[in-house]
Amino acid sequence: MHPVLPRRDEPLPVDAIRDLLGIVRSAYEAERRGGASRAELARIERVGKLLHNALSLAGSAPGTMGHRAAWEQAEEGARRVADLVDTLTPAEPIVQAAVGRVWGTRATRQAR
Q1: 8 Å CB contact between 44 and 33
Q2: Which of 22, 23, 69, 84 falls between 20 and 30 A from 98, CA-CA?
Q3: What is the torsion angle, in degrees rounded to the nearest 10, for the CA atoms of residue 52, residue 56, residue 60 and residue 63?
Q4: 90-111 pLDDT, tens per residue?
Q5: In 3D, which of 47, 54, 50, 52 has the Cα closest to residue 68?
Q6: Under 8 Å CB-to-CB from 3, ≥6 apart: which residues?
Q7: Residue with the larger pLDDT of the pair 8 and 42
């Protein structure tokens, strides 16, 4: 028997989920540039997939399984984003990676 999950009828915070996904994408790029292991990159990728899944389900009507699943994916993704960083994680590489995603290779040259 499966446990009954609480009903979540409030709207999904889509903008906040997009913001977190952007942070995760930038963190992935920063770690990749920094020579992170495949295991660490896979860990970051799993967090991104949770947030991506939540966004994919965001159009589900309140009270449906899709809406509930979107909330579950969003909440789990948010918890895991918090686990990716700590107070000692410098933001500069993450910001540079985000800028690089917008500007392409020009960002790296202009930042120097």
Answers
A1: no
A2: 69
A3: -20
A4: 888 888 877 777 787 554 555 5
A5: 54
A6: none
A7: 42
Please tell me the distance from the alpha carbon of residue 71 to that of residue 9, in angstroms, as a whole number. 10
What's 50-92 look like in SS3? HHHHHHHCCCCCCCCHHHHHHHHHHHHHHHHHHHHCCCCCCCH
Residue that the structure tokens 């960002």 belong to: 107
The rounded distance, in Å, linking the Cα atoms of 51 and 111 is 29
pLDDT value of residue 52: 98
Q: What is the CA radius of gyration of the chain?
A: 16
> 65-84 and 38-56 are packed helices; what angle lies between their axes, rounded to 10 degrees?
150
List pLDDT tens digits, range 23-70. 999 999 999 999 999 999 999 999 999 999 999 999 999 989 999 999
**Residue 41 burial by Cβ neighbours in a 10 Å radius (0-12, 13-18, 19+):** middle
Q: Which of 90, 112, 106, 102 is nearest to 25 (CA)?
A: 102
